[in-house]
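Quick start: what a row looks like.
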Amino acid sequence: MAGEGTADDGTAGAVTPPPSALADAVLERLTAAYGPAADPVRAAGAAAYMKGVAPFLGIPTPRRRELSRAVLAGLPRPAEADCAAVALRCWALPEREYHYFAVDYLRRYVGRCSSDLLPVVRRLLVTVPWWDTVDLLAAHTVGPLVAADPALPAVMDDWSGDANLWLVRTALLHQLRYKEATDTGRLFGYCLRQAGHPDFFVRKAIGWSLREYAKTDPDAVREFVAGARDRLAPLSVREALKNL
């Protein structure tokens, strides 16, 4: 399964890290901090758990976050170009912990970014993709960017029908934190559009997106599932109704 969608499909276009002195400083500190903390035994276990999507350094999450705080200590807040540079340069490193740092960095500073960052995020989503990075980028970076720019929901419409399953999953999940602000027409429309998708990760995302919105409007989700049950996969239905 790790081979499915794990490489860039070539549809995102070239995205080059912009020059950034801040990114230079972050990457220098980051590699100096993470490298000595590597644990080969933990790394092997993590890589196996993640189906071989990428090599790992083997740094436990609490320790990684502690190191990340030290890396960023005293550095200025980034501009959008710095965010793009840090993310793309982290993604160019093979070990997954560097990708996690990039995901956390974008989540922390997405409010300083505009819709111009979306092509960079798209590159991350289709390059070495797996649920561990895609889901966080969808909810905590793509979601806020789309909410801030009325032109971007149309991009989600395109992603919801893309051939790349991780872009489809992102479109389904980008509203996870919207609650009352959820565009239900798009949410339910995306679910129906991909109801017959053959991949587990898309069917699961359909159910997850509906289950999350059910916390805000359970009746709407019940009604939608009742009307679409014959089109939705059993997995999607189970996930959607799990807490109802």
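That is the whole record. Residues 160 and 168 are 5 Å apart (CA to CA). The chain has 13 helices and no strands.
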